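for ur thesis appendix - GS catalytic domain-containing protein. copy paste whatever u need, i formatted it the way the template wanted (i think)
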Amino acid sequence: MLIRSPQQLNNLPNPSNIRFIRLQWLDFSSTLRSHVLPIPHLLSLTKSGRYHGLSGLNKLLIDSFVAYYDRDKTFTRDQSYRLPDFSSLRQAPSLPNHATVFCNFSEDISTRLPTSSPPPKISHLCPHLSLQNAVREAKEMSLKILVGFEIEPTRRPTSPTCGSRQAQLSGARNLEANLMLEIFSEITNDLHQSGVVQVQHFQAEATGNQFEIVTAPLPPLKAADALVVTREAIRRVCTRGGKWRCRFIRGGEMNGLYLNISVVSPAGITGREEYDGFLAGVLENVDELCALGMPRPESYKRTVSGGSCVGSFKAWGTQNREVFVRKKGMGFWEVRFLDHTAQVHLFLGPLMFAGLDGIRGTGS
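the 3d part is after this line
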């Protein structure tokens, strides 16, 4: 859907303050990339049926294209276009003059199209595509799927005088030390006011500088987009003033990123017994899903016993925090085998497909 008038911007909390739109996308390596467009230019593009074009290098797994160019001299000639999905239009948390919108990829359009022409096709390389297809398949099965995240960031002081705290899980003193209570309260307020996602709770975690923030359930695509925006809001607020850095990857060891997913019937009932097939489908395909959820070698430092992270065995349980999947209720699971290096759209789409196959009973 294109902005053809300022009307869609008026749905934002403070539309008169918006001066810039951040066209953003998560590339294959889970690096957030963006181009910032002034509002008049974006309106000019959409009114004339044009799309924002950029080099295909923006899809790379790495920031240097030298290795690719050595193999293929035509590699730098690629062109790509960003198709804004304005259902994801939100005011940017902590950036009052900016709004964000997530984009799909397209490669088969010209830079100018007649305004009456059909919308261009999303490229098969677009990370959003498999997730959009999985959502469509769930809808065809008359199932509603909701997703939320438990996000673990780590703070790091920029000065030795800021210091660290002793590990104290859920400790009030850890949360209140060095303005962290104020920082996470500000993050929560910014996310609520911008309409990105509702925060259910935040707390101090198991190391002195680690915290956790839990987001409310949303439809899958909105949840994945909200995760990306939430991480950026955490980084932005934590680094304000220059005293702290925020990391989601610390010392070669991944902070946790846990995905809560539920299946809801058309009547709004969660947890019909047959929905346990979702768990069976996920476990049947867990090897392939691990390649997407834990894509880097250091990700597997969390697959150890005694750390309450992922654990060493491909298994499921209920209250055991050292299994790949934890069943929290009928049709309600916590997926633990992913971290912040995962491209969340690329992971969540196949995860849903595997679970839906299990509900249909098409798996073994």
